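ok posting inputs for the protoporphyrin IX containing FE job
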Amino acid sequence: MYQPLQTIHSILAYIVVFIVLIAVLNAIAGTVTKRPFLPKDKKLALYALIAVHIQFLVGIITYVISPLALKNIQNSGMGTVMKDSLSRLYAIEHPLMMLIGVILITIGYSSHKNKELPGKKFKTLMIYYLIGFILILSRIPWAQWFS
Ligand code: HEM
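and the output
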């Protein structure tokens, strides 16, 4: 169960990074060019939202069964985990930062729908998705992911 889930979480991460990047670039381009907000723009933002939500759910299950996360805290104690940077990344920083990133993207998606003007829609998506994306990128275990 652990190995397949870790693989799924790892593969989904490529999809998340790719689609959120495209959604951010699209929102920036829409803001800069002041073009109309089309159904395809909403769809792209929605696909990015769905991708991060699915990844979030898979992440929670991974967190429970991985030896690097909850089990590490239970076995080694919070003090030991906090002292080691890699343990801290997996058990605390990564999940927490991903949670904040997913919340920001969710707020961005739901509040862009309340805006009337196309420029405001693009700008809302741009700000929330960009900050969420930066937070997500900031706490991905890059070295382990690509090894
Ligand atoms: C947008 C959200 C997320 C992204 C892009 C993401 C990305 C990643 C990546 C790239 C890895 C490294 C995979 C590898 O070494 O092959 C990883 C590992 C991990 N993630 Fe996430 N993650 C996300 C959300 C979460 C959440 C919300 C949790 C927990 C609540 C979580 C828990 C974990 C755990 C425990 C590992 C270590 C798994 C292991 O190797 O045993 N992730 N994540």
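notes: The chain has a mean pLDDT of 97. The pocket of protoporphyrin IX containing FE is lined by residues 6, 9-10, 13, 16, 52, 55-56, 59-60, 62-63, 66, 68-69, 90, 94-95, 98-99, 101-102, 136, 140-141, 144-145 (CB under 6 Å).
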